Amino acid sequence: MILVEGCDNSGKTTLVSKLSADFRLLTLNNRQRPLSLQDSKDYLHLVTPLAKRFKTIFDRWQPISEPIYGPICRNTHLFTSPDIADQHQYLRDAGIRPIVIFCRPPDELILNFGDREQMEGVIENAKKIIDGYDRMIDWVNLQWFPVVGYDYAHDTYDSLSAKVRAYYEGQL
User: Fold this and answer.
1) What angle do CA 23, 33, 82 make, to 5 degrees?
2) d(Cα 83, Cα 91) in Å, to the nearest integer?
3) Which residues share a beta bridge with 101?
4) Dist CA 107 CA 33 (whole Å)
5) pTM above 0.90?
6) How far apart (Å, rounded) are the C-alpha atoms in residues 49 and 119?
C-alpha cells in the first residue's frame, strides 16, 4: 500500500498515475472529504481488504490530509491525534505496512497555481497547508510509517521508482 500525500499543486496525481502504470497498482483516488470521523473509519474498513489483496496506491489518505485541510480551509476538526493514531493502528493490526510518498517541491512551485482551479480556501491558505503537511509528515514518519520525500523539481522519477521497488521487495 502506497499513500501519496502533499499539498495541492505538489505533483501527487501525476506521480500516482505514473507509479500506477509502471507498477500495475490499483489506484484509489481519495478526493471525497469525510463528513465525520465515522465516515473516515467506514472508508478505512472498505479499502483495507482491497489493500490486503492488491498492490494499491492512494492519491491522498484521509487520516493525513483531512486534519490539515479541515481546520485550515473549512474550520472543521474531525480528527484528534488519537483518532489519527487509531486509524493508522488499524492498518498495522490488519498487517498492512504502507509507505508514504510525500510530494514536497519547493514552496515557490507549490504556490504557483497559475490558472488551475483549487478547492475553496486552498490558495489563500497555501502556506499554512504547506506548514501543516511538514508537521504531519514528520509525525507520521516518526510514529507510524516510513516516508519517502519526492520533489519533482530535483529528484528523479527513477530514484523514486527504485525506492518503491525496494518497498515491494521488502527492503524498505
Assistant:
1) 90
2) 13
3) 4, 148
4) 24
5) yes
6) 30
Any idea what DSSP says for residue 132? H
List strand residue ranges (DSSP E) for the chain, in order. Answer: 2-5, 26-29, 56-59, 99-103, 147-150
> What is the mean predicted confidence (pLDDT) over 79-95?
93
In which residue are the cell numbers 491522498 written?
60
The residue type found at 7 is: C
Cβ atoms of residues 132 and 10 within 8 Å: no
Backbone angles phi, psi at 99, to 5 degrees: -110, 140
Grid coordinates of 100: 508514504
Please state the φ and ψ torsions of residue 76, each to the nearest 5 degrees.
-115, 145
Question: Looking at the chain, how many residues does it have?
Answer: 172
Tens-place pLDDT, residues 12-42: 999 999 999 999 999 998 777 888 999 999 9
State yes or no: pLDDT of 172 exceeds 80. no
Letter for the amino acid at 84? I
Share of the chain above pLDDT 70, in %: 99
Of 123, 24, 128, 150, the residue nearest 67 (C-alpha): 128
pLDDT score recorded for residue 101:
98
